[in-house]
Write a structure and sequence with these properties.
Blueprint lengths: L1 E2 L25 H4 L4 E2 L7 H14 L1 E10 L2 E8 L15 E4 L2 H14 L9 H4 L12 H6 L11 H6 L3 H6 L7 H5 L19 H15 L3 H13 L21 E6 L2 E6 L14 E3 L1 H12 L6 H7 L10 E2 L4 E5 L2 E10 L2 E8 L4 E9 L5 H11 L4
Antiparallel strand pairs: 1-7, 2-4, 3-4, 3-13, 5-8, 6-7, 9-10, 10-11, 11-12, 12-13
GO molecular function: hydrolase activity
Pfam family, one: Beta-lactamase
Protein name: Class A beta-lactamase-related serine hydrolase
Length: 388
């Protein structure tokens, strides 16, 4: 256990993992600096990237891995330990829970259905899901994709946060299976936060609904459609939609939640849990290489038609550090336009960013433990996407 330095905070946006307020965990020096794989000649700044990963493992995470691509040059690195109390290194090809990156996959399926003429972006929620949303006649598929529906985020509701407010509560519910309707029930009777299409607010509820829309249009679960349309097509062998399965198959680092006991903070292993609590908004398990391949294919037009590609990249301002397309976040780094998404789920945080031409990429996955990860993510972005 370690001393508390900051107050523990529960999730406030998305299904954000509880963050640790402590630092100073001991790690085996033999496992802290995992070997990086670097291709010769010009390419990513291997030394600079590895130093940032090592700093992360010292101050803010029990484990971290990353893959950076610059045209044909690829760098992979990791740091920390795969499991606290062990000397097991972090596999650079390890799997992790990718959280809200799931949304980019779901949005891709929806846009493919639009391209096939089976769905329209201006179709209402009521048309496809009659009676499911009280204001469904005013909300379109486009509103759901771009978080402009005005529907409350179910993970922000008081009942949900009461259920998942502490590490002990998360552990108690780790094996519970949630249906989409049960997740939607958290927002029942709350009304809209704003008139659809007039403002923006990130809401996991939007993508729970999109998962149901996909099922209504195709007759198949969204995960089946993702498997057929994306995973097999791109050969994303390290990616899965686990559904109710709590185990991460293949090599992976453990995720932890902080539990306070008598003023001290101890790590509680949350690696195994039933991800149905996130469903179509955040259940994905993947690898850095797979996410880079997916976003590269998506941004270069390999998965969508020309018109759907244009729709994908239409930007909605958000007032945050990023703006939003359809299932994609976008931001500028060193004057370079990036597209991708981040993910945050119990014990795991991920960010994946790609230039619009698909030539430069960064995917990083953390197991948070200690300090604030945001400054380190900004450092990685600055190095990975340094100006030419």
């Amino acid at each position: 256990m370690i001393s508390r330095r900051t107050t523990l905070k529960a999730a406030t946006a998305g299904l954000v993992a509880l963050t640790s307020g402590g630092t100073g965990l001991l790690r085996s020096s033999s496992a802290t600096h995992a070997a990086a794989q670097v291709l010769p000649r010009r390419g990513p700044d291997a030394a600079g990237l590895q130093k940032i990963l090592d700093d992360i493992a010292t101050a803010a995470a029990s484990a971290v891995l990353a893959e950076v691509r610059d045209s044909s040059q690829v760098w992979r690195g990791s740091s920390g330990v795969a499991e606290l109390g062990s000397a097991k290194p972090v596999a650079v090809n390890g799997r992790f829970r990718a959280g809200s990156i799931t949304k980019s996959f779901v949005a891709t399926i929806v846009l493919q259905l639009v391209g096939e003429g089976r769905l329209r972006l201006d179709d209402t929620v009521e048309y496809w899901l009659p009676g499911v949303v009280a204001e469904g006649r005013r909300i379109t598929v486009h509103h759901l994709l771009q978080h402009t529906s005005g529907i409350e985020n179910y993970t922000n509701t008081r009942p949900f946060r009461t259920l998942y407010g502490t590490a002990d509560q998360v552990l108690e519910l780790r094996n519970r299976t949630w249906t989409p309707q049960e997740l939607l029930n958290f927002t029942a009777g709350l009304g809209l936060l704003f008139e659809p299409g007039t403002s923006w607010m990130y809401s996991n509820t939007n993508y729970i609904l999109l998962g149901l829309v996909i099922q209504r249009v195709t007759g198949n679960h969204y995960a089946e459609e993702a498997e057929r349309r994306i995973l097999r097509r791109l050969r994303l062998h390290g990616t899965q939609f686990p559904g109710r399965r709590s185990v991460i198959a293949g090599p992976h680092a453990h995720g932890y939640l902080p539990r306070e006991t008598g003023g001290l903070i101890e790590p509680v292993d949350i690696t195994r849990f039933n991800p149905s609590v996130t469903g179509a908004s955040g259940e994905l398990v993947s690898t850095a290489a797979d996410l880079n391949l997916f976003y590269r294919a998506l941004l270069t037009g390999s998965l969508l038609g020309v018109e759907q590609q244009r729709q994908l990249l239409q930007i909605q301002t958000t007032g945050r550090s990023y703006d939003y397309g359809l299932g994609l976040e976008t931001r500028l780094v060193n004057g370079i336009r990036l597209w991708g998404h981040d993910g945050d789920i119990f014990g795991y945080q991920t960010a994946s960013w790609t230039t619009e031409d698909g030539r430069r990429q960064l995917t990083v996955a953390y197991n948070p433990w200690g300090g604030d990860l945001k400054p380190f993510t900004e450092q990685l972005l600055a190095v990975a996407f340094r100006a030419s």
